[in-house]
Amino acid sequence: MTDSHRPFLPRAVPVLRLAPGTLQIGGADGDPGLRVGPLPADSSRALAVLLRGLDGNRPTAAVVAEGVAAGLDRAVVADVLAALRACGRLVDVSSTDLLAAAHTPAARARTEVELPAALGDGRPGTWGRRSGSSVVVDGATRVGVPLASMLAASGVGRVHVRDRGTVGAADTVVGGLSAADEGRPRTLAAADAVRRAAPDVDLRPLPPGTAPDLLVLTRPWAAVDPLLAGLQSARVPHLVATVRGEVGVVGPLVVPGRTGCLRCAEVTRTDTAPEWPALASQLREPPTARTGPPVGPVTGGTGVSLATAVTALTQALGHLDGTAAPVALDATLELRSPDLLPRRRPWPAHPACACRAGAAAAEGRPGAGGREQGHWGA
Ligand SMILES: [Zn+2]
Question: What is the pLDDT of residue 290?
Answer without folding.
Answer: 47
